[in-house]
Amino acid sequence: MNFTQTNSVQQKKREHPEEKTRLHPRNKHRARYDFAALIGCLPELALYVKPNIYNDDSIDFFNPEAVKMLNRALLKCYYDIGYWDIPENYLCPPIPGRADYIHHMADVLCGKNFGKIPEGPKVKCLDIGVGANCVYPILGVREYGWSFVGADIDPVAITSANRIIEQNSVLKGMIELRLQPQPNDIFFGIIQKDELFDVTLCNPPFHASPEEAQAGTLRKLNNLDPENTREPLLNFGGRHGELWCKGGEERFVRDMVRQSKFFANACFWFSTSVSKQSHLKGIYEALKIAGAVEVKTIPMGQGNKSGRIVAWTYLTTEQQKSWRETRW
Prior knowledge:
Number of domains: 1
CATH topology: Rossmann fold
CATH class: Alpha Beta
Order of helices and strands: HHEEHHEHEHEEHHEHEEH
Low-confidence stretches: 1-12, 212-218, 232-236, 238-244
Number of strands: 9
Oligomer: single chain
Mean pLDDT: 88
Strand order of the largest sheet: 5-4-3-6-7-9-8
Strand content: 15-25%
Structural class: alpha/beta
Number of helices: 10
CATH architecture: 3-Layer(aba) Sandwich
């Protein structure tokens, strides 16, 4: 490397942010990864940590095993999760982004509770598409003590998530998993008679086909390293129902909105992440047709990726007051 190249790399390093300011203020992952501390928590991570072009410790984000090991270290260091694993080719979600969703929904509840976040197992959450990774329930339990029901259409995912719960005493009794037998149903067959939820969460499938999912992965890899893009390996994993479904994200969320109306009084806040801004118009239209009383759109971002949460409620002001007084 000549002097000009060296100087360019050093300049880039000086400009590299020390803090991920787009993440929620309570997010434990706003600072750059402290790989020495993470290796201290999980020595196996050391096999995957090497200096990058800026001479900073990092992992190869093209390597699925490295990404999984990083998640395992983060969950152990920050959330006291001693065991965490997922089957091969299942979605390995980025922990900082998932934590952001949990913190933002805590703020939404806070806004209806005189500025105080409701905490403890009396706050009951439903994770639609809990996945093999069980990450949203893990984060919600460990950050706020909330209790969870996790639903999924995949028996293998349910088995994997149950194994995570059984292997971690801090999760036992806090998370219940339910298999959704009808893939086209979202709340039917999961929310039981007279059951109430304070929040529902969902990370819907982004894409409408496996081909579209592969193209999206290729773009993601190109963003990670535009000069060295490799084959479109799903480095974060993902299968049908996780990364793609018929009609893609917009259709899934519109179906969710339509079905949520039937459970209008069973949940305070329904919510979902929405990756593509172009989908918002159709989602807002569905919410208007469904008769949502209040809709919130909360921006989120990590690195070069921007997204948002759309949350809605059917409860009137008086119903919200009653809910708060009887449950929180």
